[in-house]
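[stage:ingest] chain + small molecule (IPE)
[stage:ingest] validated
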Amino acid sequence: MTLKDQINKTKLPAHIAIIMDGNGRWAKQKGMVRVFGHENGTKAVRQAVEASAEIGIKNLTLYAFSTENWNRPKLEVQTLMKLLVKSLKKEIKTLQDNKIKLQAIGHLEDLPKNAIAELRYVIDQTKNNENMTLTLALSYGSRDEIVKAFKDISTKVKNNIISVDTIDESIINKHLYTQNLPDVDLLIRTSGEHRISNFLLWQIAYAELYFTDILWPDFAKEDLYEAILNYQNRERRFGKTSEQLTS
Ligand code: IPE
Ligand code: IPE
Ligand code: MG
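[stage:predict] done
[stage:export] tokens:
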């Protein structure tokens, strides 16, 4: 049986998030410049998106560029932005064929104008697709997102739109970029790094974490299926005891 066939379709993670890491090291291992790794990373993006759609994952969120990544060398940042525009143009067909809706989260105003325009176009073109929501985290930082939520909620309290007593987890959820998404069930990070790097801090409160040494450009459909199988073999206790879950 293939890995894909072993996946239990009734126990799929409702939301998978991926920290796509290791492009630079992948290129370096081949004696190439870092941006060569980013170019090849876009192929792995397509693999992950298609693999998710094929098995019926409803929400996939990809960490493509962090607020901290602006501190990289200017040429690398420029190349990443160019690759974003190129990929959006190229992949719109994959999105339409698989009925995938694109959305983006992050401090999008910081992106170059042509990237914002292309993003808006693809988001608009795919807005009625219902098989899967693909969320790109761009100029995204979880702390930045939480600061924004604090500000927005405080303003509403100040203007008597909501009262302090009514603030609860669901109100906070509604003020995050990810307001329309369920909590992350499975968080994957490639490249052997074991950290979160300011990604979805609130949303991963009870996510299962999966780390693999594979560098992002090498991450293939089978690797995603393996991560999902690993997830399905875990016992998610949410604070309860194992006995409580089985009785
Ligand atoms: C991930 O790969 C892509 C981005 C963060 C944009 P890296 O570029 O971080 O690759 P490494 O970690 O340096 O190998
Ligand atoms: C995290 O990777 C950001 C993205 C994958 C977009 P980084 O490579 O930027 O993270 P650090 O710097 O190793 O923590
Ligand atoms: Mg990295």
